[in-house]
Write a structure and sequence with these properties.
Number of strands: 63
Radius of gyration: 44 Å
Strand content: 35-45%
Oligomer: single chain
Structural class: mainly beta
Shape: elongated
Amino acid sequence: MSTAKTHRIVPIAQSFFFRALAAAGLVFLCTLFARAGNPRYVAGTTFFDPSVTGQPVLWPQGTLTYFTDQGDLSPILPNASANSLVADAFSQWTSISTAALSASSGGQLAEDVNGSNVTRNSDGTISMPLDIQPTATATPVGIVYDYDGSVTDAFLGAGAGSSDPYECFYNSVFGGADNFGQFAAIQHALVVINGQCVLQSSQLTDLEYRLVRVLGQVMGIGWSQLNLNVITGNPHPTPDDFAGFPVMHFMDLSGCVPVTVCYANPYAMAADDVAAVSRLYPVTSQNQSSYPGKQLFAASTARIYGSVWFTSAAGEQTQPMQGANVVARWIDPVSGQPSHRYSLSTVSGFLFTGNAGNPITGFLDAMGNPYSNWGSSQASQQGFFDLAGLPFPNGATSGQYQLTLEGIDALWSEGVGPYAPYQVAPSGTVQPIVVNASPGIDVAQDILMTATAQPVPSWAASATWTNPAPIPAAGDWIGSLDTYGDTPYFSLTAQANRTLSVAVTALDELGNASELKAQPVIGIWSASDPQGMRPPALTTSPFNSQQAGTTLLNAQILSSTKFRVGISDLRGDGRPDYHYHAHILYGDSVSPARLSASGGPITVKGIGLTAGQTVKIGSNAVTPLSVNAGQMILNIPAAADGTETVTISDPATGASSIMTGAVEIGAQSSDSITLLPLSVTSAPVGTACPGAIKVKVLAADGITPVSGATVAWSSTSNTGLSACGGATACSASSDEAGIASTYATPTVAGVANITAALAPASYKSPKSVTAQVLGTANGLAIAAATPYIFVAQGATVSTPLTVRVVNNGTPQSGTTVNYQIMSGAGAASLSSGSAPTSGSGYAMVTLSLTNVNFPVQISACVAPANNPCQTIAVAVMPLAQLQLQPVDGSNQILSTGQAFSAISVRVADSAPSPNPVLGAGVLFQTLVVRPGEDGPAGGQGGMPVILSSSQNTVLSDINGLASVLPSTGSFGGELQVDVTASAGTSASLSYVLETVPVAGGSGSQPVFGSHAPTAVRPSVPLHR
């Protein structure tokens, strides 16, 4: 035996099909271009000459010359025996009486093809002898005898060439055409026979059966679906079912080993096989002389042809229907029943392109070849069927055929028809049609389906690339891909640091999720991207979600702009029954964008929000208070200061929207903390400094107060802090005015440092301020808790006057303290002139002020010598100088039926470090309002209705605080409570509180369409 040089495959135009398969290591196993019961290959609009578009790709003149391997096939099939096996397999096709087809041996290949000269390269291509490569048109059909399975391993992967029954079931014979001419001619094919699958004579029938099927593909015959009950057993097959079951069916049961367990005569040609090969290679008057003894195909058989049609509501044909299996059965004149022995099948649109690509995933296959290389693009071919070759048993000169229509079985016939491997269920129904026929007659018979799906009415004036439709406010709609190549586009505005999800569920006519209709793919472009550009975010395949029938695109938004969302069928297909349900989940903004570290409610604005979604703030799960399509209200628990991300997820589909850094909690790194002026900085040891130490937290603008920021207080020299309950360290929060305060009580003489640090647990270098207080040891001493009292002008109010008596820091018990009004007696009175100290050294009397308009001064002295003394000064604040500071209760959104917490405000003067004002009348006015009806995205649409109004006045206490407890009264449901607080001549604050329905409703529904899908929304990344 001679040995030929091996050569790596060089990509050339004519061998694009082979390159695609070889690079994937799956040579010839592809069903991408199958055409059921008709041509396996149909010339497309690219690569092939335009004059042959839509024509079957065949061997010229029906003549095949094959060359066999020099080696033996197996221990029981030496070379000569293997050659006889191949010749017999060819003869199963060439002996058909109406087929103008011949296959002759041209001799042997130039070598023994084996694992030494067929190897897989690191880049996935195959090195092989020159005379079996796609370019070897001088040896048009190469037959390789793979004695030890090594060639099979090289092509299909390690282990594929073993003698294992499972591997032999699929891999005993494989191959197909790998080179095509531009004028629709097959120029080369390769077939590999695995000798490890025929080690004993009992395997010969199986091997030849599989060889006959592969040779049928080599000749250009596609797979067929007919009498499928032979495989499924439903109904139980009859002898006629077996007799009419085509050799070129797509798949066998795995238990068919040996194959005769399932089929007694496995490669006996059925009527469908005879017609399929005869349609491609018919015996005609022009070539009959070359095939003596054969019959004229057209003259001896009949033909029924036509198109399958969708229909309008009025029953008129509208659009061709591709991918339906059309079956013709001879009606036995004796029984009057359709025969399952004399039956043919074809698939509507078998000449039309099954996959033309789309603007989202592209128009090229994985090897860069255009999908348009295959199949006609002429609309007239889209639903066309051709049942030529109808036989007339027993020499009859006429007869009747029954036409029926069925769907292609997505499991057992996955590779059948132009849609392979993505089958489409027919739409509508049709009653059997009886057609009269006779030999030599062509009968035109269209099939109009009844009650077919109708396109979903368009809800926008335009959904084109140049004029995309706006996304519905609810982010939810039902549409359809109506016509071939239909790709609707929609516009959406989104901001950076967000992600969004687009879920598209394919629906059947009943509105249920289906994978036998459209194959949705999704793309997102920036609005400025040029048409034809590959989308930066796309799904590369349909049905990538965990939810049936759903395609999901999870996309990251890198810049704030307008975007264009496109939806297409993977194949570029479109038809009236390609309905879909689209849902966009997008979280856009949060209000308030800043929240106290102690938590509180926020409102998330977005698109497509529903009650079934889950929410996380950072890593903490949060249950929504209320949800509608445009907003979601959340009650955030206490959290550390800093920036948090909001994640909204749909557990049913895998959709999510991530709002990175959307919520600022407590203090931020850009905030500042300021020490407010401190008037008195010393006190006797054991007594509190009379002035509170105050800090104010401001945002980066230096103006906006920060509420709920964590302020960590600490002191030196064991100085007690009132904010910490007397301890030396603790954390507190700034109030709604941005203020945090504490009183300091020195416990030892000397200077103590009081430090306020801004959220030290959140930042490596927290900002801080420090105040100093001096503790003095003066023997016997007295100190007032509030030596300076600020009272609103004209106030009538009472307040305790508390002092503490210590001796070198030790509280003095049972000591009498004498109180005396030194000035302002006309407006002031004391409950008693003296009071004893408690065990802690405290004494207290009550000061009553009546319509006070002038300063008041009181002295408190230790008896009996009335020494030492403490002066308590009461200053009167004009009403025009009063201001209101928010303290607590401003951000409240509750579920219906829950009680609000109090709203607190502080009345203060206008000093640089505002002093609390006692006795100011704070008027709280409250309105309970029923909001107007929601707008499309959850916004307020109608006019609100006032349900009740009330008002009451509260006097501020010694700390300037006044509070009110809002209530909805007896009203329930969704409510708004508006509270206005006012004091002095012009100070006022406004609050809006809400009660909302409990989350758990049905969420958004499609904004149009006549049905709601059973399965909605099942996802692939935008910028991944």
